[in-house]
Amino acid sequence: MAGTITGSRVGTRPYLLLVTTMLLWGSGFSSSKVIVDHLPHSVVAVLRFGGGALTLLVALRLSRRDGEGGGRRRSSPQDWARAAGAGVLGVFVYNLLFFWGLSLAPAIDGSTIVPVMSPVLTTAFLLVTRQDKASAARVAGLACGAAGAAIFFVGSGGAAGGGQVRLAGDLLFLLSAGCWAGFTLLGRRVLAGIEPLRATTYATVSGAVLLAIYSAPAAVEVAWHDVPAYVWLNVVFVALGPTAVANLLYYRGVQAVGPASASIMMFLVPVVGTACSALLLDESFGAVQAVGAAVLSVGAVLAVTQGRIPKRRRAVTS
Predict the structure, then answer these.
(1) Burial, 57: exposed, middle or buried (Cβ in 10 Å; 0-12, 13-18, 19+)?
(2) CB of 126 within 8 A of CB of 260?
(3) Highest taxon of the source (predicted)?
């Protein structure tokens, strides 16, 4: 939709989109774990984002037919290259690390590490590059977050439900969180000359193509006729909801409120993800992990917000 959004609508609509995104992402952890228990992690990644890419291509085609975005300039090869490059990091590398981690560690760990560490790493990068101010609250929050992460990983290594294997999975989740932080930071540049639907589609398609090439050898070895029907239902869900719809809404949110404010909303994901993992998969934290998760979350919120919610913009072109 072309035009300028002003007044109260700016203060509510982008955040409603981001809340929906976080609900979808949170539920996607447990759903993805169900799939990864039956298929190789690289194959799961391509099923999720291959399906998401196809859905976004259809949506992009329909938007052209309806004349959406007619007031915008045509995207250039540079626009496409920026979006595709973001997809390499935020779709291809992120998902290889994430689903590999998910094959080793419980979904409940990923639903805490990825959404909590992503905004922490985003904030740390902004401070190191002097794109944001290093206030006392932010420094204290980052220190608290680092301590919480250390406690969490110590708890992972000693957990009864996996030990060193679980720890390895959690470290892969941490690396994937770094990829997502980079993807968030790239969002503003990617969206500089291209509407969110087109940018999201280009990024997802480029990442999905690389995932398909990478996962081809493993896909050949899968006994597809033995995959249960409920696994396919989860594949459809994660491809449509937490991938196609959620990524589009996230890019719209980043465009409207910026990467820092969008990152704050990530703190809803652990709540949803933990609830889904506990209720649907009967997963849980050990005592040390629970303490680490609490300390990490407090530090992350302090580091990102500095004890206050960022000011809303008065006008956003969308």
Answers:
(1) middle
(2) yes
(3) Bacteria
Q: Strand, helix or coil at 4?
A: strand
CA distance 115 to 111: 7
For residue 316, list its beta bridge partners.
5
Classify residue 313 as left (phi > 0), alpha (psi -120 to 50) or beta.
beta
Report the amino acid identity of residue 88: V
Cα–Cα distance, 67 to 69 (Å, whole number):
6
Question: Domains of the chain: which residue ranges?
Answer: 11-317
Which tens digits make up the pLDDT trace of 228-277?
999 999 999 998 898 888 877 877 787 777 766 776 777 788 888 888 88
What the block records as the tokens of 71 is 């007031």
- Maximum Cα interatomic distance, the chain, rounded to a whole number of Å: 58
Q: Give tens-digit pLDDT for 9-48.
A: 445 677 788 889 989 989 999 999 999 999 999 999 999 8
Beta-carbon neighbour count of residue 145 at 10 Å? 27
At 7, the pLDDT band (50, 70, 90 cuts) reads very low
CB 30 within 8 A of CB 280: yes
Query: Which residue type does 129 have?
Result: T
315-317/4-6 β-pairing = antiparallel
Give residue 13's Cα distance to chain centre. Answer: 20
Strands in the chain per DSSP E = 4-6, 315-317
